[in-house]
Specification:
This protein has eight helices and four strands; from the N terminus they run H-H-H-E-E-E-E-H-H-H-H-H. It has 172 residues and is mainly α. The chain folds into two domains: 102 residues, no CATH class; 66 residues. The strands form two sheets. It has a two-stranded antiparallel sheet. A two-stranded antiparallel ribbon has the order 3-4.
């Protein structure tokens, strides 16, 4: 959920019904991945879980408290997953290292980060400063090797006048 919503910027709805994860004791021979797949298999769940599960399964090598593991139920861990980008490209991952590389290089992720960082600093949506402001700042971020400090200075410098002051300045 965190990756989907906060890193990839995907709008996911809360579940329609309250649910409790299936206890391991109910299906003692299933791995966590198999139990999650079983529980989220209904069509109503797939609206979100078609995105959530393939990303979450990348973290299967870590148990509920973060300990690394190679096996579960005596079976090797399957830490593979995938993500369908906004452009419609299916990206497959063999584990969290592949995911990290994708996220670091992803234009989508850079865009989401810049928009969230802008909102955090300015307390206003980035669109209030023009339809091209997000793309302009995303390019600046990438051109400056994703330097967060430089991005912060740029955002503050560009927004010091505020959205209405910039527009009226251009009209004079």
């Amino acid at each position: 959920m965190f990756l989907a919503r906060n890193v990839l910027g995907l709008p996911l709805r809360p579940p329609a019904d309250a649910f409790t994860p299936l206890p391991a004791e109910l299906h003692p021979n299933l791995t966590t991945r198999e139990r999650v797949t079983l529980q989220t298999n209904p069509r109503a769940c797939q609206t979100c879980h078609a995105v959530i599960n393939p990303l979450g399964f990348l973290f299967e090598r870590y148990d509920a408290i973060g300990r690394y593991r190679d096996k579960e139920q005596g079976l090797p861990i399957d830490a593979s997953g995938a993500y369908l980008t906004r452009a419609g490209k299916l990206v497959r991952f063999g584990g969290v290292r592949d995911l990290a590389k994708f996220l670091a290089d992803s234009e989508e992720v850079h865009e989401v980060f810049v928009a969230q960082f802008f909102h955090h600093l300015v307390k206003q949506p980035i669109r209030a400063f023009g339809v091209n402001k997000l793309e302009e700042l995303r390019k600046f971020f990438v051109e400056n090797d994703c330097n967060i400090r430089k991005l912060a200075v740029e955002i503050i410098a560009q927004t010091a006048l505020g959205p209405s002051d910039e527009k009226s300045k251009k009209g004079n």
